[in-house]
Amino acid sequence: MTDRALFVSTISCVFFLAGCADAAGRRLVSPLKHKAAPDFELTALDGGKVRLSDHRGKPIVLAFFAFG
Prior knowledge:
Radius of gyration: 20 Å
Order of helices and strands: HEE
Strand order of the largest sheet: 1-2
Number of domains: 1
């Protein structure tokens, strides 16, 4: 790795990590943490409907993507 690439990588990491805390050094936490997600309905790949509320109490991973 060149000196310039190392410098840019280091500076990028410093700015990224600095953005993870506020001025007092505390972690920033979203006001939405521990709040229930609003219910919504999506169309599944097979054409059926899927509601978030149908899976209440189960771990859910959402992956949004589009075909173009």
